[in-house]
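General statements about sequence and structure are easier to judge against a single worked case. In the encoding step, the backbone of a single protein was reduced to a row of integers, each denoting a local shape. The record that follows shows the chain in one-letter code together with its fold in token form.
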Amino acid sequence: MPNPISPRKHSSTSAVLADRARELRRAMTPAEYKLWSRLRAHRFHGLHIRRQHPINRFIVDFCYVPNRVVIELDGETHSEQIEYDAARTEWLNANGYRVLRFTNREVMHNVEGVLEAIREACEAHPPKPTPPKRERGTQSQTPVSGEILGGCAHP
């Protein structure tokens, strides 16, 4: 008989991402915790903001899905992954997400300023996705209206 508390076997990438997102929610940094305490449970202007939210193959720190706003907190390790972060931000922007980046230091020392920037972005109209670059001889990979893209309905 299988052990009911043993880790699940994963048959898909999305299941692995969901489990990883759960792990990240349990192991928040102090800056993530401080910001989340202000954003959670519709406390922030009644908005439903998600934390450690999977989008396609990425897990973003926070996301306001209706207006496609991604909030990323950059800690010490981000200086070592500048290229990865830039490529990820480019993909998110191309797919209609507005990415806001704050340092952990900004959150810890100026949380009100960070919250104001988040509020302004969440209340603005969502950006439109940039059409993907088409390589010669390939078909466009633009999703059909209503198709699911990274866990969020594509407008």
In short: The first strand starts at residue 50 and ends at 55.
